[in-house]
Design brief:
Two copies of one chain form a homodimer.
Chain A: E1 3-9, H1 13-24, E2 29-33, H2 40-44, H3 46-64, H4 78-89, H5 92-102, E3 106-109, E4 112-116, E5 119-122, E6 125-134, E7 138-140, H6 154-157, E8 166-170, H7 174-185, E9 189-193, H8 205-217, E10 221-223, E11 230-234, E12 237-242, E13 245-249, E14 251-254, E15 258-260, E16 274-275, E17 278-279, E18 292-294, H9 307-320, E19 335-337, E20 342-347, H10 350-355, E21 361-366, H11 371-374, E22 382-387, E23 393-400, H12 403-415, H13 420-423
Parallel strand pairs in A: 1-2, 1-6, 2-3, 6-18, 8-9, 8-14, 9-10
Antiparallel strand pairs in A: 4-5, 5-6, 7-15, 11-12, 12-13, 16-17, 19-20, 20-23, 21-22, 22-23
């Protein structure tokens, strides 16, 4: 039976990075992938989504300047845009596997199942290792509806060869928003259907509402407080049925959440604890079995399930596997909804802010009239700061075409505790979003 | 005769900022402007240029994706784009003057001339002050050619109501480049004529050459080693004549440099030293008269003449006027050529790098294949690091659609001496240019 120092299960950003780093430590490492080498992020997540978003951004940069330099905005050719996406994604699985193999990390393809806490089975083979890292990520949940077989998911959307005329998304989290923004910009009649009136929970409600208004003006149809009960196939498409609501679309995307990929792992055989949110770990990312670690989206955790967080955890695990580390300590974690106008936040969670609202006060700055935003006609650009009782910034939300750039600068400034006086002594390429930073801090 | 604590001459970014800050110190302040309130940068410099550049960026974002999501790129409507620019610039002079007046800073409009070192004349009035700040900036030079009266300058270009069919720029500094990029993207046949084969001196030669290639592919015609001798008005336009070279254009822009605005100041009456490069100051920005300070582009200095540098100097002068400051110490100063693909640099000057090339070694990283750049089809994206003998980064040049964003991040990282290990513990909004930073440091 092949024996390794460490077996990594899952080759997404977390597992992949960990495998390389463990190998660099001189360990004998194997990695198992049940699906596409590279995992969700580069194959059917962040990266392909943002390839498509390139088209949206380009179109909308022009559209914002309609009447200000351009007569009309260009139309997106879906087939070409999808081919552009594939020019990136097509090579990901092979290049990921070849990279691992070149680094002398043994690769196994197939579903991994624990036989016992020391042994794992994959593709009719049994392997053993001193330590394990479970980094199998998540996949879309399927709403338990009548007609649920008619639902498609984000993976299907990101592979659509043709864009249907009418697309509906059930759910209003960031995945639904981002894919709806793409569909709408590419010319589909686009609907977002949500069971309550609080889309993008986890983001500031005031700025979420403004983003919704912006997207409504751009053509997206929002339907709130709709409890979808049934999907029925009709001659003219798929009918979404709820009490007092009915909508027929050519494509219905279920975007109501993601679940940890643990069903096939046979965790009980290894005595690894888990719940429906994922694998339970201690503050050293050890499961209930001290030699089995887990990280990334498969964890039952409250920190956002994002690629860079998974990467951060992977780096931590690589050290933790050698012992002698203190509990994991997360840095600031920005979260973002991409699009034309982007919504980004960082800091204390909205849940905490709402629960202890008496401790916090806010300031919202309208950026639309600032040169940087006026220049790109970024109407509606805003930034909201939340301060604690000592007037310390504890959270920031930004709605702008430049929100990602701005939030990333602010992550550095907050982490390094750079003061206003210090920031005033920086000289940045001008004019630019960076040149405005001293007005915020 | 009205008497002030401080009289500021020039209301550009430097003079304006200094006037407000001095007023906040409780001083009695007057400010004199001979031309447009607000000065060059917001009226006929960085800001209007980048309003027009918005159109270029938007068009080129689409053009880069031609065949990758778009059939064609949209055409720029010059009149509309110019109206968009004016929507920003039109209100600058009035709002600048009203802002100053509201802050109870006395404003005088007219040409200022020293009567003696304590007295200044403006619009038939004499004023006196304890201290002076000269911040009159620069204006375009005029080449001493036969037919020089046919040359127009950057100010004229930025106010063009219609875009001529064929535009030629004489000179190949960043102003010529940026305006040529705008003219070319907006549909004019565009030429850059330069007396040697080293455009954009001050930037890394290798990456300048690549930018030139990129712009040639985009349609700009470069003519190097052409010593223009004469401009002749012909029926079909303005003929640029040199040995073995002749070109006729509808508009010829002289962009061969800028000269300090000191001619009308009667500096000799105040015994203020100057040369053709500008006003001479010591390390406390005092002129040869200790009570007369100067800052910004009007200085004879080696630091780049840029708005944020002028602002930095203005802040310094405000303290220096109260005495007890140490010599001015400049932070890192990034410089940039805006455009579709932007060229940005920071660090030790190219002159120093060339003179002591034995002390330095370089590494150029091709970014085009990196996800961040592949996503926007940023072909030719590159970053070049220069290291000293201790492998410390001493200069960085970046050629990319994202060069401004990247160089501004790097300014922060270098200034705060953030290490690779530290940077790996940051989590950024992903994917984004910031998420790549740990690969550079």
């Amino acid at each position: 039976m092949p024996k390794y120092d460490v077996i990594v299960i899952g080759s997404g950003p977390a597992g992949n990075a960990a495998a390389y780093a463990l190998k660099e430590q001189g360990k004998n490492v194997a990695i198992i992938e049940a699906d596409l080498w590279g995992g969700t992020c580069p194959n059917r997540g962040c990266d392909p989504k943002k390839m498509l978003m390139s088209g949206v951004e380009a179109k909308m940069r022009v559209e914002r300047l309609t009447g200000k330099g351009f007569e009309t905005s260009p139309e997106i050719n879906w087939e070409e845009l999808m081919a552009f996406k594939k020019s990136y994604t097509d090579s990901v699985p092979d290049s990921t596997q070849h990279g691992l193999a070149s680094a002398k990390i043994t690769t196994y393809h197939g579903t991994a199942s624990f036989v016992d806490s020391k042994t794992i089975a994959v593709a009719d083979q049994k392997l053993t290792a001193e330590q394990y890292l479970i980094a199998t990520g998540q996949s879309p949940t399927v709403l338990p509806l009548e007609g649920k077989e008619h639902l498609r998911n984000s993976t299907d959307f990101l592979a659509l060869e043709q864009l249907p005329k009418k697309v509906a998304f059930i759910g209003a989290g960031y995945i639904a928003f981002e894919l709806a923004i793409i569909a709408n910009a590419a010319g589909a009649q686009t609907h977002i259907i949500h069971h309550n009136d609080q889309p993008l929970k986890g983001f500031d409600r005031e700025l979420v509402n403004q983003l919704v208004e912006h997207l409504e003006a751009a053509g997206i149809n929002f339907h709130f407080n709709i409890d979808t009960q049934k999907i029925a196939k009709q001659a003219e498409g798929y009918q979404i049925i709820a009490n007092d609501f009915e909508l027929t679309a050519d494509l219905v995307i279920g975007a109501t959440g993601r679940k940890p990929n643990i069903d096939h792992l046979a965790l009980e055989k290894a005595n690894v604890d888990y719940d429906k949110k994922g694998i339970k770990v201690n503050e050293r990312l050890q499961t209930s079995q001290a030699h089995i670690f887990a990280c990334g989206d498969v964890l039952a955790k409250n920190t956002p399930k994002l690629t860079p967080v998974a990467g951060y955890e992977a780096s931590y695990v690589v050290e933790a596997m050698n012992g002698q580390v203190s509990a994991i300590d997360y840095p600031l974690i920005p979260t973002i909804v991409f699009g034309d106008q982007r919504l980004a936040r960082v800091g204390v969670s909205e849940k905490e802010l709402a629960e202890h609202s008496e401790k916090y006060h806010t300031q919202t700055i309208d950026l639309a009239g600032w040169y940087t935003y006026q220049r790109i006609n970024d109407q509606g650009a805003k930034i909201k700061f939340v301060y604690d009782e000592a007037d310390k910034i504890v959270a920031i939300t930004c709605l702008s075409q430049l929100a990602d750039e701005l939030i990333n600068y602010l992550v550095i400034l907050l982490t390094k505790q750079i003061t206003h006086a210090e920031l005033e002594k920086f000289i940045f390429a001008y004019p630019s979003p960076a040149s405005d930073l001293s007005y915020f801090i």
